[in-house]
């Protein structure tokens, strides 16, 4: 039997640290329109691109996953929702600017959820500076393809727009 490290690219201690985080994204539809948010020019990763409301779990603050997605949507667009089931899981990597050593990364594992709006007056008044949003819009489903989406969201959007089986 080969040693445990056989075939490995090198010592695990030589790899940059990766921190795991969890996020949820809310796909909120009303009257054939999906609520999208646009990243501001100040966004460090995707300035000017569109996505759906949501964000990363606050481990110490969010009571459960439904509480988490409700909080994120309220903070970003100021509406209340009824969380629905997840329909897609995916991941992305981003630089970890808080890592003690250079080269650290964050691996974000995310769940996309279908959510029902309980209120409809979306606005950006509740967001904090870290959200980096400058617009929100209820977009007709047939027009979503014209929006410049964050790249990692594109396959999720395709899954969302597929007819139910």
Automatic annotation (TrEMBL):
Residues making up the signal peptide according to the UniProt record: none
Needed cofactors: Mg(2+)
Domain named Nudix hydrolase: residues: 17-162
UniProt GO MF annotations: hydrolase activity
Gene3D superfamilies: Nucleoside Triphosphate Pyrophosphohydrolase (3.90.79.10)
Key words of the record: Hydrolase
PROSITE patterns for this protein: NUDIX
PANTHER family, per the entry: GDP-MANNOSE MANNOSYL HYDROLASE, MUTT_NUDIX FAMILY PROTEIN
Protein name: 8-oxo-dGTP pyrophosphatase MutT (NUDIX family)
């Amino acid at each position: 039997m080969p040693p445990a490290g056989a075939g490995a690219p090198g010592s695990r201690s030589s790899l940059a640290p990766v921190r795991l985080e969890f996020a949820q994204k809310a796909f909120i539809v009303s009257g054939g329109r999906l609520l999208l948010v646009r990243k501001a020019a100040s966004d460090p990763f995707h300035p000017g691109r569109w996505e759906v409301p949501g964000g990363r779990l606050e481990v110490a603050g969010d009571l459960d996953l439904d509480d988490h997605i409700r909080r994120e949507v309220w903070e970003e667009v100021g509406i209340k929702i009824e969380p629905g089931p997840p329909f897609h899981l995916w991941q992305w990597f981003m630089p970890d600017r808080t890592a003690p050593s250079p080269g650290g990364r964050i691996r974000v594992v995310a769940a996309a959820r279908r959510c029902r709006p309980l209120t409809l007056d979306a606005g950006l008044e509740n967001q904090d500076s870290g959200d980096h949003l400058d617009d929100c819009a209820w977009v007709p489903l047939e027009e979503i393809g014209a929006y410049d989406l964050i790249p990692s969201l594109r396959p999720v959007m395709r899954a969302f727009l597929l007819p139910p089986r």
